[in-house]
Design a protein that fits this description.
Elements (H helix, E strand, L loop, with lengths): L6 H4 L7 H9 L2 E5 L14 E6 L12 E5 L7 E10 L2 E5 L9 H4 L2 E2 L3 E9 L2
Antiparallel strand pairs: 1-2, 2-7, 3-4, 3-7, 4-5, 5-6
Length: 125
């Protein structure tokens, strides 16, 4: 049981189903293995997350969503963070474990163009 999370976050935890596997195979969803402890409380190292890729038609990001973004200062590195605050098309992304997270407090606000997808399922290891 995860305490202190919003109701929407609890719905992310699911067992793999055929629809998820199918959408992974056809490329509608992508998956990542969690590395590091910056999102602990919600995500643990080794957990698998799937995310829906964002495009101009399905941008429905809200405060509290967990997103995958390109690291703004390191090429080819991805980060997984929670949307803490939104200002115009810039996002304040924070890790749930503030003591171990390199996030917008260090990186600054993240442009919408750097956000790749929204996490929709979490498979704990």
């Amino acid at each position: 049981m995860i305490t202190g999370l919003q109701q929407a976050d609890k719905s992310l935890f699911r067992k793999p189903d055929l629809f998820t596997l199918f959408t992974l195979i056809i490329g509608y969803r992508q998956h990542l293995r969690v590395v590091g402890t910056s999102m602990e409380r919600t995500l643990k190292e080794g957990d698998l997350v799937t995310y829906k890729k964002l495009n101009k038609k399905n941008i429905d990001l809200e405060i509290g969503d967990i997103v995958v973004a390109s690291h703004p200062k390191t090429k080819n590195k991805l980060i997984i963070k929670r949307i803490h605050w939104i200002y115009q098309n810039k996002y304040d992304l924070r890790g749930d474990n503030s003591l171990a997270s390199t996030d917008s407090r260090v990186l600054g606000l993240i442009e919408l163009d750097l956000i790749i997808g929204k996490v929709d399922k979490i498979f704990s290891k």
